[in-house]
Predict the 3D structure of the following.
Amino acid sequence: MPTTHNRPIATLIKWFVDKRSGHVQDARPEIQRRFAYLDWSQQKKIALAFLSSGKADRQWIYAQLMQLWDDCFAPKIRENWEEYHEQRCGWIVIRYLPKDYVMANLDLFEGKRDYYYACRRFAADKDFVIDDSKLAIRDRFIIHGMSHKPMDGDKCLDDIFTYLYEICASKYTYPITNDREHGEVLEALDIKPVYGMMKDMERMGLDEHIAKLREWNRNVYKDIIHSDDWKQLHASNRSNDDYDSLRRIIMKMYVCKNLDKKYKIVHHKEQDILDELDAENLPDDFSLHKVHGDDWMPSELPWAAKEKEMRELIERNPFVETIIDELGLTTDSNEEVPF
């Protein structure tokens, strides 16, 4: 095996390009190691060589070209896209190739967020029609906000409340906009993506609907601040981690209580829900109180099930009873199981 670390880069490129040299495997890692520190003329030769090489080499150079683009690569990128339809190649097509070509290929981009990135490039164009059905909830707010093409205000609120239910019914640990001090309520609008969607609504000029959202948020705040759960949280000293965890759980519970039933569409697997309940990991000296109201969580969820439903669930899955015992929950016939 020849020593490569002190070989001239021209020699390594020659070895790599000549597949019969017997040194392709030796040259590749050294070329990749040096690539970022080479001058443009050498980087261009390497990029074109890797674009004409095998799949692994193409994938590597696609990542480099996202930050090191030059139009001289466009013909080869177009050729590779039309032959292989590789996702990373598609990212370059979306970002750098002519708009008319990207539009002609729009239906061929199959990556989860490819349409979102295409929208970021085209959304400001007056004749571009945004297909909201192809965008995740958070993404459609971003695109409409940056394009100054307002969404329907009622649809915005529906999307936000649906998104909030997803948070309440999943294991997702949501980021918050700022650290609330000890004793301050964690609010729904503190959830970073939700706050971001509200700011996008401001850019769309939906002031009336923002006022409705803020009023709803105030109602959740009032429910929390006057709840036995909030009082219990402050009845004893807790570590910062325990305090923050319980504050988040309480916020999720009262957010869900204040959501209309139409947003509580259950599509989570039963085991996922059980895992989430177990993941809350309440301290032994803390038990959440029953939240009053009509079906604050859908009856299909285990922690909102009636005794009969719970017993049937236990019969199908004895693991449920273990969770109930460990968390100090109840299945009394006249009470709902708390969150």
